[in-house]
From TrEMBL:
Lineage, uppermost ranks: Bacteria, Pseudomonadati, Pseudomonadota, Alphaproteobacteria, Acetobacterales
PANTHER family: 3-OXOACYL-(ACYL-CARRIER-PROTEIN) REDUCTASE (PTHR42879), NADPH-DEPENDENT REDUCTASE BACG (PTHR42879:SF6)
Family: Belongs to the short-chain dehydrogenases/reductases (SDR) family.
InterPro entries the UniProt entry points to: NAD(P)-bd_dom_sf (IPR036291), SDR (IPR050259), SDR_fam (IPR002347)
Highest taxon above the source species: Bacteria
Organism listed in the record: Gluconacetobacter sacchari DSM 12717
Name of the protein in question: Oxidoreductase
SUPFAM superfamilies: NAD(P)-binding Rossmann-fold domains
Amino acid sequence: MDLQISGRTAIVMGASSGLGFGIARALAREGVHVGLLARDPSRLDTAAARLRDVSSTRISCIVADLASQDAVHAAIGAIQDEIGVPDILVGNGGGPPPGSAADFDAALWEAQARAMLLPVMTMTDAFLPAMRANGFGRIIMVSSTSVVEPIAGLVLSNALRAALANWGRTLAREVARDGVTVNTVMPGRFDTARVQTLHQSRADAEGRSAEEIRRRDLETIPAGRYGTPEEFGAVAAFLASPLASYVTGALIPVDGGLLHGH
């Protein structure tokens, strides 16, 4: 299927590995000029080389650590210099540390809210006017199934990802008539470094092995396996296309049937 996005431009945040890289690869294979944004230059270079092995499209690298608003604004300037205003903006970032709702740390909550919410919101604010003027824009946020079914021990992720998703749903209604769509894709269990880290944290807390935690996780997934970044990237690439122009404000699970009743 031709997704009709060849020649478009995209920025993928957190693109050097995992689900972000899976999205970048899917877009590159469709002929999109992809800007990879991450903080580690060597990992970015490796990711770009891997993409150039599967696509002849242009791949750009933007090194940025979005830990402060100054850094976010600097990244926006670098993006504009490198590719202009992107047609497709993919908000993706690492998850916060585990924690319980009963153990409240105001400083931690404030820091994680800034890290998880402000980068994609600030970038959207910068690029949205041109998207609306052009009559085409795609804002895709990578989140988690915890948006609709909170995961025990991940209170920061549960709360902040839900906040970002509902910001996106609100924005989707405001810009729908301008050809701009805003969607949240909710991965379930994928075989990524983030999931492996969470397995180890749970294993340490429960006095079990990480492999046992993994086996227990697999038993809860109707598909009986973890997803792959390639599968996740394919969903995001479709949402980035004109073929998905009537899909907006959606929370889309990609989870092997993990969610119940959504």
